[in-house]
Amino acid sequence: MTARQSSDTSDTVTPGWYGINPATDDLKTDPHARFAHLRETAPINLTPEGRWRLSRYADIQQLLKHSSVGMRHRNGLIPDHSREDSENSKFMLRMDPPDHDRLRKLVSKAFTPAALAALRPQVQAVVDGELDQSVRAGEMDLAEDFALLVPAASMCAMLGINFSDRQRLSRLVSHATYILAVKAFPELQGKAHAALEELAGYMLDLIEERRANPGTDILSAMVMAEETGDKLSTEELLQQGIGLLIAGLETTIGLIGNGMRCFAHYPDQFELLAANPELAGSAAQECLRFEPSVPMTVRVLWEDTDFGGVTIPADSVISAHLIAANRDPAVFSDPDRFDITRNEARHCSFGGGIHFCLGSHLARMNAEVAFASIARRIRDIELDEDNFRWAPSLFRIPGNIPARFALRS
After folding, report:
1. Where is the composition biased (Polar residues) (predicted)?
2. Domain carrying residue 316
């Protein structure tokens, strides 16, 4: 039975999980068959809990780019959050215009091409220094010793954070992600709030230090950013700083960690990259498509909208399953094939519309540095699958990827 019946109204959609229940199913380890089933049998799906789900590329592009949607209900509430929590939430990714536009415009001053171009040599130097030492043993944890290394180097340089704090911050950020899924993971909210409180104390100290002694880092630029007399308040600075850590550290660890697992499973593609380092950019894009660390995003529909013949009513909460859209055979040829030379439609992993990932260029830069740097040094990656572990994160972030490898001569 499919989710849609003969009529084109939402009243005739049969609610169901269709093999994807986030409360009971493992959606991190090899979830693609499940999402393919959802995309094929119930592409416009109403869950038993009343949330809508989209899994086709065209429908998700329509939602993110061409529909009247927001991150909040029209009354200002974030889905599944109280009014108090909604009013206190000021991270731009959870805001709608005009507040979103104001915050993004101020923060975007820290993500100019010139700032990122200046950052790349710093990141490359840290990565080279660390890898020259760590690969000598012929084994490492590709998550803790490598995937964390590159985004930590960039975020620490960008925010002026001590590189030695990277493990602590990574742990806190992982736990904090569950604040985004209050309804699905109520048992983890205590740990998530505790992590956020510790991150807030850490970030507040940095902000006060930058106000007293501004430097050239991006946090200083955010502190000093001003547009027609408008500056970020302390609370706004605090939440943008924490949000950037979560977005810039956690998800990029996932991009690089999941990418290295792809390269281990598809050694011909790793050898192709080693022989053609100029493919690092397209390799990063293919990793984002093939094994995204953020499998879905949420929007609130602000007006009745037709998706593929089904009218979804205004004020509905819609989950857009990016991971399913990224393997939609209507868009990607042989979508279950990992191919770093692929040159097709843009993947969905950075979202779309006004909330298109502000740090997309930074994430790609980090991945390019990571993949090109490691491919120059090692070959014949063998994963210890028995000891692979996911990080304690809402997202698909590897926590441990033990591996052995040979060194390139």
Report:
1. 1-13
2. 10-407
> Is 126 domain-assigned?
yes
Do the domain assignments include residue 4? no
**141 vs 391: CA distance, rounded Å:** 13
2: confidence class by pLDDT, cuts 50, 70, 90: very low
Q: Determine, yes or no, domain membership for 156.
A: yes
Tell me the average pLDDT across 136-156. 91
| 142 has a pLDDT exceeding 90 | yes
| Listed residue (120, 166, 124, 126) closest to 143, CA to CA | 166
Confidence check: pLDDT of 6 > 70: no
pLDDT at residue 305, as a whole number: 97
How many structural domains is the chain composed of?
1
* Most trustworthy range by pLDDT among 128-137, 179-188, 316-325: 316-325
- Does 47 fall in a domain? yes
